[in-house]
Amino acid sequence: MAAFDASIKRTLPFQDDLKDHREHCSVDPGRLASIGREVGHQVRVKLDGDQYGLYTVSEVQPEDPDNIVRMGQAGRLRLGTPREFDAVVDAQVPHPTFSERKVRDSSEFIERLADTGQRGLIAIAPHGGGIEPRTDRQAERVASRLRDMAVSSWRCKGFKDDGGAFARWHITSTDLNEASFPRLSSVFARGFTYAVAFHGFDNPELLLTGDILVGGGALPDLKEELVAEIQGVVGPDLVVRIPAADERFGGDDARNIVNRLAAPDADGIRSGIQIEQSPDARSGDRWRAIADAVAGVYRARLRPVPATY
User: Fold this and answer.
1) pLDDT at 246
2) Per-residue confidence (pLDDT) for residue 232, from 0 to 100
3) Count of alpha carbons within 13 angstroms of residue 250, beta-carbon side
4) What's the pLDDT score for residue 213?
5) What pLDDT score was predicted for residue 209?
6) Are 229 and 293 in contact (CB under 8 A)?
7) Does residue 133 have a cis bond before it (omega within 30 degrees)?
8) Is residue 70 a contact partner of residue 62, using CB atoms and an 8 Å limit?
9) What residues have CB less than 8 Å from 62, skipping those under 6 apart?
10) Is 53 exposed, middle or buried (0-12, 13-18, 19+ CB in 10 A)?
């Protein structure tokens, strides 16, 4: 993949988006094109051998010299410093060849795809590994439990050996661009009937409102069925609910990758489901029970088809 030597600078006065979002940066349009990326794509920014992470190019900004890349203070702090610094901007997002063992040992980031060639359901976990632990295993388990339905799964796994995988590798679901993830890109245009995404959160304010949030662009009946099945397996100690449309973790934004993977029905509704889970919900055997409950709901909605692994 292509890369260039960059000078990371503070934001310009009018770059409010960069000031407010620690995962965003701006790049000179010519430099961005030179590495085969566009606005909305993800890139790696590498300060040195130990400090690097993923960013979304949320805007282009003509620069002189043209190797200037801008981000807010929160964006720079993701790489361990509030100061301006020199770095390398790389078009590569997931590592193309590492095994899961190698990616753990190297504090790296990979994507994995199990594609059956069918359109019924895809289970995804954009923030697996150490980013939002056990979510990737949930997506894998749903696909395994629905093997006779030929369910596909796409997962990303990111690690950092001393903690901090979330800060290094997390990209917001509404920003995830298939062009930056080759395996996701290979199935993106298929148009799945259903798509379900597993996520994790530890936001203290959100924890006060519930342990598991079942959101997304799907119709209420599917969300309600999932809530009932999940509540049944986790018991009364955890609160399972449907977030309101205007909630931050509602998952119903049309730009959310899970909604974009689901094909619109005759009324234009995309049956994407986003399941946000607290640390308690993903602890012990609960993560497995939640995945099994989700698989059970989709089993009733899918037809068995010959698997083509």
Assistant:
1) 80
2) 97
3) 14
4) 96
5) 79
6) yes
7) no
8) no
9) 28, 29
10) buried
3-state helix/strand/coil string of 84-96:
CEEEEEECCCCCC
Give me the torsion for CA of 287, 290, 291, 293, rounded to 10°: 160
Any idea what DSSP says for residue 12?
P
Report the DSSP beta bridge partners of residue 9.
70
Query: Which residue stretches of the chain have pLDDT < 70?
Result: 306-309
**Rounded CA gap, 94 and 58, in Å?**
19
Q: Which domains does the chain have, with CATH numbers?
A: 3-90 (2.40.40.20), 103-299 (3.40.630.100)
Q: What is the CA radius of gyration of the chain?
A: 19
The residue behind tokens 């720079």 is 76
> Structure tokens of 306?
């010959």
pLDDT digits 0-9 by tens, 44-89:
999 987 889 999 999 999 999 999 999 999 999 999 999 999 999 9
Query: With the CA atoms of 138, 143, 145 and 149 taken in that order, what torsion angle do they form, in degrees rounded to the nearest 10?
Result: 150
Token duo for residue 138: 């949930």
Predicted local distance difference test score (pLDDT) of residue 205: 74
Instruction: Give the residue carrying structure tokens 């995404």.
Output: 197
pTM of the model as a whole: 0.96
CA distance 264 to 272: 10
Among 223, 202, 216, 226, CA closest to 292? 226
Instruction: Using DSSP, state whether 127 is helix, strand or coil.
Output: strand
Taking alpha carbons only, the member of 26, 41, 57, 43 closest to residue 88 is 43
* Neighbour count for residue 14 (Cβ, 10 Å): 9
